[in-house]
Amino acid sequence: MSTKEFDSRTHVGFMCGCIEREVKKAINRGLKEADACTSSTKQGWIIGYFVRQTEPIFQKDLEDVFHFPKSTLADIIQTLEKDGLITKVPVDGDGRKKQIVVTEKGLQFNHEIEAQIMEVEDYITKDISDEELDMVIKVLDKMQKNAKDYKSYIKLKKED
């Protein structure tokens, strides 16, 4: 591929990354202005997940949900606990098995970050019709699936 060909193309992955960073910054600015908790939007999404669970939550089960490396997930959980947003409580007298429980502070943070996420999403989707937004979501879903499938494609390609 030539440089000219590369430069003449709109790079969707780059655009998605830029949009993601801008949305995160907007959410974080809103939280800072509201003098809310200093946790990140990533931690906010995780707390939101915890709040919505009806079954007990254990750290070992979260790797499959969030697709973070074990060490990254452990760091996030440790930070959430240190910030007082969650606590770990022993289950059935087994000190090794600890359930993650969202604290009152965590519930308040969840409320604040969800309100900020909604505000930012409402703002960035203004002047976009429901039909256009549905199409964007369908296309992004397909792109996410294709990106996940790419790993298998590369493996097959190497075997040829």
Q: Predict the CATH topology of the largest domain.
A: Arc Repressor Mutant, subunit A
Query: How big is the Rg?
Result: 20 Å
Q: Please, what is the CATH homologous superfamily of the largest domain?
A: Winged helix-like DNA-binding domain superfamily/Winged helix DNA-binding domain
Portion in beta strands? 5-15%
Uncertain runs with pLDDT below 50, 5 residues or more? Answer: none
Summarize the helix and strand pattern as letters: HHHEHHEEHH
* Major beta sheet summary: 3 strands, antiparallel
Q: State the helicity in percent bands.
A: 55-70%
Counting DSSP E segments of at least 2 residues, the number of strands comes to 3
Given the C-alpha coordinates, what overall shape results?
globular
Q: Number of DSSP helices?
A: 7
**Can you list the strand order of the major beta sheet?**
1-3-2
CATH class of the largest domain: Mainly Alpha
**Secondary-structure class:** mainly alpha
How far do the termini sit from each other?
A: 22 Å
Using the 3D structure, state the CATH architecture of the largest domain: Orthogonal Bundle
Question: What's the rounded overall pLDDT mean?
Answer: 88
What count of structural domains? Answer: 2
Can you lay out the helices and strands and say which pair or pack?
Blueprint: H1 3-7, H2 12-33, H3 41-52, E1 57-58, H4 59-66, H5 70-82, E2 86-91, E3 94-102, H6 104-124, H7 130-159
Antiparallel strand pairs: 1-3, 2-3
Helix pairs in contact: 2-6, 3-6, 4-5
